[in-house]
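Bench notes, afternoon.
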Amino acid sequence: MKTAPPPLSARLRATVLTLLLALAAARLCVWLGTPVPWMIGPLLGTALAGMAGWRMHSVDALRNGGQWAIGAALGLYFTPAVTALVLSLWWAVLLGVLWALLLGALFGTWLYRGHAAGMGEPPDRMRATSWFAGLVGGASEMTLLAERAGARTDLVAAAHSVRMAVVVLVVPFAMQWAKQRWQLQALDITPLGTGSVEWAGLAGLALLTGLGAWLMRLTGRANPWFIGPMLAAMVVAMTGMQLSAVPTALTNAAQLVIGVSLGVRFSSGFLRAAPRWLLSAALGTLGMIVLCALFAWALAWLADIHPVTLMLATAPGGITEMAITAKVLQLGVPVVTAFQVCRLVAVLLLAEPVFRWWAKRADRVSHRA
């Protein structure tokens, strides 16, 4: 029996309270000088409030609008010169994709060995749960794929929520420290084609990127409100058109609602649901961050790109969050975005077939034993 949704007035009050709290948390982080304050502040504020028992609420339309704005802003970095640079790194992007799949498989295997016996679930179900919880992909997409494989979707969604929170809270601080340590000013190869806001051009950009989001939704692909506008803005930049930059206030607001959408996943009962599983997800994420940093160092030596850029490019976070970090800290937005987009597409396409191969191999090993 489904629980009736709360009345509209209660959701409206919760939405207003959430946004006000998120704004206050963002302003506090700006004052404190934290990296990516407009995303980290709202995430922390709403997560702590939710775990304390306050009713937090994220509006899907606002989150979609935030992804739209960020996607458009990132796509404008892909000028002809930058596009040529990114294309020349195709081999490095391919290595990054293979690394992400290997890392996800290792994380999933580790989760399975640590929790399969204690969850009271059949081995096949825990194998699917661990696999889709370990992959470095979007939480909603991995949860949907996990449901089709018969996994426990609550554990998959919880693991991805923890992973995203840990990455968003750890990586930007690490990147800010690295930037100060190496005294880096900016690693973006070329500036945006249009550095100023032109209102007529901005309206045209909004129309084109909105069309991109609509077309991407028609295809049924994941994350259409981010990928569609970003691809449309990339086309604009690649052809040399100079319509308008995206206003800073708009990208700040976009980061705020994206931070809220991450923070509201943490409720008062979240930590009590499966504490050992959540702890494993957090520790495993920290391990993945360290391994990705080592991989980035090796790849930086081969590709002659600064390791800080490749640390963000290969970090086990979401494309939106890592690209936002690269944009705010000016640490090579096009390279980070290209790596993250290709990884997202590869994981979505290969997650199910590789899982079937992995499950059959595991069954053969268990039968021999």
